[in-house]
Amino acid sequence: MFCLPAPTTLKVLLSKCSMNVGINQQLFEIINKYISKQEPEVNEFVLMFDEMSIKKHLYYYVKHDEIEGFQDHGVQGRSSQLATHALVFMIAGIRRKIKQPIAYYLSSSTVSADRLTVLIKEVIGQCQEHNINISATVCDMDGVNRKALSILGATANCPCFKLNDKEIVALFDTPHLIKCFRNLFLKYDIKCNTDITSDQGEQGTGIAKWSHIVQFYELDNSNTNFVFAPCIKKEHLNPNAKQKMQVKLAVQILSHTVAAGMYAKISQGLTPEAVVTANVIAKMDKLFDTLNSDTADLRRGKPLATNTKCSTTHITFINEMKLFFKNISFIGSSRKPPSQEGWVWTLNGVERLWNVLRQKHNTIKSLATRRLQQDPLENLFGCIRGNCGSNHNPTSGQFKAGLKTAILSNLSQMGGGNCEMDQNETIINNFKSFLKPCVRNTQQIADTAADPISSNQSAFNDIDENILEECSGEIQACTYVCGFIIKKFKHECNACKLIFTTTEQSIMHTFNTFKEYNDLKQVLNYANKNFVMCVENCATIVNTYLKINAHKKGLMKNIITVIKEKINFDFLNECMEHKNTNYIIKIEAVYRQMHMECTSRRAVMAWLVFSHKSINVAL
């Protein structure tokens, strides 16, 4: 019988795995040890980065004394904005099928181009410090990504940038580019050069139309039993918004099978103009083969579906396709689509990377271009969502837990996503060193230290002068809560009762009076004015502090510091024997009250509930 671990055991295991926002030093140290035992050519990695949508959600993390769910960029700081995206960085091997997530950040909306530039430099800098050689970066064609790469110095004609005198090639994700091309083709006809030349030597032009593909589909499906392109369905021809995101539909419609079928149908009723469309589809099929190769053998006899070598025609075809994308135009488009330049950018980048790797390592004789895509990162996102219970929009806490689980399960994939399973192995396959406590360096200690109390102390200056309006609903509600606090006292002491309660009811006890179930018997505790004033002022401090500093670290420590400075607890001196105990219970109750109040008033404070143990330690 195979005994599975208990849920408690798994939770303890996850708690040992430190995955704080930003750079994880333990991961880098383990990867460094792995690389030191490998051949030099294995130390060639692609750095891929992308964002995953998360749900706005805040909760108080007692261990770190902070509210999680705000924008957090690690050493770059936190802000009061709620996080809606998680930016993840992952490395994947160029020469070996290995991968490992190395850092993540939480952002409000999408991260800005300037900040993304800083984070890219930060992550690559850490990689270089740990002897991890980043040869290329891969991302999608999002505008922020393009701007960040431009800031770093990369262009379409020279798709690389230097960091610490190390050249790094910048690439765009091929599956994303193929989807962009299909989506543009759906909307616009394409004017392109043909293989026909005039007597004067001028190259002819033609127009590729999506309507030609639709016409081919209708003719093909008029056959009684067999068709040329059985995989083509109506969702390929007229995809909805969700289907436009599926790589499979784009690749299948821009395939060799569809091109061959259109050539055959031209003699069977398809308009002769469709030959231009068939030529474009045939070129896109060959291009995808060129940029999606991961085998040294011919796949189904397709010559470009193999790894790039000096003896193959891949580079010749790449140069041909660069001219193709430079010369085409999308009829009706008001501007040149970014993905058109993205193709030229990526083709130049692949050629440059191939030349660099060959010059650097004499042992490198081929390049598997599929490893220059961000499928491993997309599969990681699917793994995280699966670990969150198939939750496509997890909270920041769920994302963090899902990422931990993914790493501890070697990024096991569930399949069924928008990307092919990448078959890459994780670098960290022995968690003995990863799960043991590590000695934190100065930077890590600084990251978890409490932030200094805000210099804006004017908000707390008038706390002691707060005028108690006994008839207000605020004070009457506070008075009732004070009665609940008094109920928490376990010791029987007449002196303490005199400090906190009163036998004379006033207008501030109106709500208490109506809360009594029996008019003849008094059950509730009736707090005196001094105690109510103290609790109200403490609550005001907590609310005021969190309005300004809820996103900062060391909340409990700093709030208690302000309370000690601003609140007068001299009335507790009437019972010196229980003074410290009363003080602790008092502070703890204030935070519990904040939880009840803020659940309906301010979501930013709804999860700020401090335990009795944490309060005692802080004091």
Task: Provide an overview of this structure.
- With 619 residues, this protein is an alpha+beta fold.
- It folds into 3 domains: 20-173 and 373-428 and 439-448, no CATH class; 178-334, no CATH class; 457-618, no CATH class.
- 45% of the residues lie in helices and 14% in strands.
- It is built from 23 helices and 17 strands.
- It has helices at 7-16, 25-36, 113-129, 143-152, 174-187, 210-220, 234-237, 247-253, 256-265, 274-290, 314-327, 338-360, 375-387, 396-408, 432-435, 442-448, 473-487, 494-500, 510-515, 529-549, 555-566, 579-601, 612-618; strands spanning 22-23, 45-53, 59-61, 66-68, 70-72, 78-82, 85-93, 98-107, 134-139, 160-163, 166-172, 189-197, 203-208, 308-309, 329-331, 366-367, 425-426.
- Strands 1, 2, 7, 8, 9, 10, 11 and 17 form an 8-stranded mixed beta sheet that branches.
- The protein is elongated.
Binned strand content: 5-15%
The major beta sheet can be summarized as:
8 strands, mixed
Q: Which structural class do the helices and strands define?
A: alpha+beta
Gyration radius over CA: 32 Å
Q: Distance between termini?
A: 50 Å
- Mean of residue pLDDT values: 82
Helical residue percent band: 40-55%
What labels describe this entry?
single chain, 619 residues, alpha+beta, 8-stranded mixed beta sheet, 3-stranded antiparallel beta sheet, 23 helices, 14% strand
Q: Could you give a short description of this structure?
A:
The chain is α+β, with helices and mostly antiparallel strands. It is built from 23 helices and 17 strands. The chain is elongated.
